[in-house]
Amino acid sequence: MAFKMHEIRELIRLIDESSIEEFEIDKEGTKVTIKKSGAPVMAVAPQAPVSVVPQAPAPAPVQEAPASPKEPQVAAPTKVEEEAEDANLHKIVSPMVGTFYRAPAPDADPYVKEGDTVNGDTVVCIVEAMKLMNEIEAEVRGTIVKVLVENGQLVEFGQPLFLVKTT
Length: 167
Fold this sequence. Notes:
By secondary structure, the chain is mostly beta strands. About 15% of the residues lie in helices and about 35% in strands. The strands form 3 sheets. A 4-stranded antiparallel sheet has the order 4-11-9-6, with helices on one face. This protein is a component of the acetyl coenzyme A carboxylase complex; first, biotin carboxylase catalyzes the carboxylation of the carrier protein and then the transcarboxylase transfers the carboxyl group to form malonyl-CoA.
C-alpha cells in the first residue's frame, strides 16, 4: 500500500479541522478520497475502473434533535475507555468506518489477542470498507491489554479498537 495508516489519519485530521469539503490524492497508483458531508466517508483503492450498482436509499433515521454536519456524533465514553485514560494506555483507533475483523480469514487465528506484544508495524486487525480489506497496524510498541470490539462489528471513524500498555 502506498499510504501508511498514520498518513491517512493525519490527512483526515487536517481536513476535519479545515473548511475543505472534499480532498483527493493519488500516490503510486493508490487513490485516497475524503469527503466531509454528514458522516465522514473515506475510500482507499488502487486506481482501476469500478462499476457502481445503485442501491435503494435507506430510510432516514429518526433523530430527536437535528445534528450539524460539521459536528461529529460522539458517544459517551465507556467504562473501559475511562479506565484506559486513567491508566494512560494507548488506544488503537479505527481510521475509517467499516467492519472490524480480528483475523485474515474466518478460520484463521486472530492477528493479536490480549497479552500479545506488538511493535509499530504489527498488524492487529482488518477494517473492511467498501469491499477493501485495510490492515490496521499497532503504530506503538507494547502489550495488548484489551480488545474493545467484537469480530464482525461495525466500527466508526476514531472508535477505539484495542488498548495497549506501551513500553
